[in-house]
Design a protein that fits this description.
- Two copies of one chain form a homodimer.
- Chain A starts with a strand and ends in an 8-residue tail after the last strand.
- In chain A, helix 2 packs parallel to helix 3 and helix 8 runs antiparallel to helix 9.
- In chain A, strands 1, 2, 3, 4, 5 and 11 form a six-stranded mixed beta sheet that branches. A five-stranded mixed beta sheet of chain A has the order 8-7-9-6-10.
- The first copy, chain A, is of the alpha/beta class and 280 residues long.
- The longest helix of chain A has 14 residues.
- Chain A contains nine helices and 15 strands.
- Chain A has three domains: 93 residues, D-Maltodextrin-Binding Protein, domain 2 (3-Layer(aba) Sandwich), CATH 3.40.190.10; 76 residues, D-Maltodextrin-Binding Protein, domain 2 (3-Layer(aba) Sandwich), CATH 3.40.190; 102 residues, 2-Layer Sandwich (Alpha-Beta Plaits).
- Chains A and B meet through helix 2, strand 4, helix 3, helix 4 and helix 5 of A and helix 2, strand 4, helix 3, helix 4 and helix 5 of B.
Chain lengths: 280, 280
């Protein structure tokens, strides 16, 4: 089996992909759209990309890329704990500079704020790159934020472990087949109203879901480059559940009663609910 | 006047901040939370941070940081066009590798997909770093995506201009005072329902806005780390407009009729509508 994942190699995404598919051939690809298109065209069997990080929010390129496809569907979700550590050279002195990737620095802002309020923060292309840089430069006043493995691999001493607690990333597995119902599923849809800047479009949509007793896990409106919006909605239920089917029919009718526009609601996938936020 | 902005120096954020405040003292800060806290504590007069990019979506750290503050308010929004170009050494051959920052590679995915479907993509810590790397390495099979200025500064030849069309970033200016009404304003609020995972909470909220004829520009639900949600809503109107005031009162009442929780709705700011998406 051939599995594409968002590269580069030696990242959390590769680790997770290897965990899910221990025996598959893994192919790193950058950017997200290449992974999605490789699944779309059947160049690979499945793809693994990030959907959301607890601290950084949703990866909008993932949702946008899926919306532009015909064949790709979300078939599974998996969470992974991201453990950031602080490391420096064993003989380090007072730390006045901290190197890491921008997203990692943002995730660890509370720790930095409390422990190194005056440190200069320096951007690296990846967290492991930051660790390698400290080792190569020999700077004794500098530290890196990276995984414990990356810090140790660069010969750095671990100064603090898990400095951004409860940091989870949710990944999705992409395939081309409908996932069967399990009785505890979620569905992500992209809704594209034709009406623009009109009070109440979102209220009309959420009214329909409420009337079918469907809990919404996530709602996100997104400009569509044409002065309109997409609404990304993640809801509890499978697209073949009766109340979800009813909602989809009702929303399509509400947005486009004459069926002139084929794309007012697109199902990006139904998949088993992993309750990924529960153990935070 | 002292203005903090999201660093590092020599980025689009610095350019924009200099345009708005040509005579001010500018102080770069990383990460976003430092800018917000500098305004919160009065260490600077104002702050400038990104809120949204048309391709990458919202900067969730901006909204999360504002929600955690007492004094900071959004007082202005400004858009800036981001023009990405492709550059390589003047005597370059066939391009097989493209270097840039991850967000820039994602933004330019359509161009790369059409023009360099097989190129290896390599991450850099910033777009200007990518340009400098190509120049230093002397690689003739590699190109960088960066601003025209950064490519030229590194002595690279411009191969293509504006390869990610209509790429705008919306920045916000942070202050500590209420912005007066202009008659064409927007307001961003953070809503924190006490009820959790209950069908209809969002529908109740959007119903209230619809009943007051308020157009919602943006809605985003966000996990709150306690199994609940924040809803970030951007709406047309000023917080002192009667219909916005009515909505706020009604939402607070609907979420917490006995006023036991002070933080069910927080206004992050009202500011003049720049109609930033109109000229896309």
């Amino acid at each position: 089996m051939r599995i594409a994942y968002l590269g580069p190699e030696k990242t959390f995404t590769e680790t997770l992909t290897r965990q899910i598919f221990p025996d598959a051939e893994l192919v790193p690809m950058i950017p997200i759209r290449r992974v999605v298109m490789a699944v779309e065209r059947g160049n690979v069997d499945l793809g693994v990309i990030p959907l959301e990080n607890i601290y950084n929010g949703h990866v909008i390129h993932t949702l946008d890329s899926l919306t532009r496809c015909e064949n790709v569907r979300i078939v599974q979700e998996r969470k992974m704990k991201v453990v950031h550590c602080l490391g420096a050279l064993p003989n380090h002195g007072k730390i006045t500079r901290i190197h890491s990737k921008d997203q990692a620095l943002e995730q660890c802002d509370q720790y930095i704020f409390e422990n190194f309020p005056d440190a200069e923060l320096v951007l690296a292309s990846s967290t492991s790159e930051a660790a390698a840089y400290i080792a190569q430069s020999g700077y004794l006043d500098s530290a890196a934020i990276a995984s414990e493995a990356a810090l140790k691999q660069s010969g750095l001493e671990i100064m603090a472990v898990d400095i951004c607690p409860n940091n989870f990333t949710r990944f999705i597995v992409l395939g081309r087949n409908l996932t069967p119902k399990t009785g505890d599923d979620k569905t992500i849809v992209a809704i594209h109203p034709i009406k623009r800047d009109q009070p109440g479009v979102l209220a009309d949509i959420t009214d329909i879901f409420r009337s079918q007793h469907i809990n919404l896990e996530y709602v996100h409106s997104r400009p569509d480059r044409d002065n309109g919006y997409y609404f990304y909605v993640e809801l509890d239920g499978h697209e073949n559940d009766e109340n979800v089917r009813n909602s989809i029919v009702a929303i399509r009718y509400s947005l486009d009663a004459r069926h002139k526009h084929p794309d007012t609601l697109k199902v990006l996938g139904s998949f088993p609910n992993s309750h990924w936020k529960d153990e935070n």
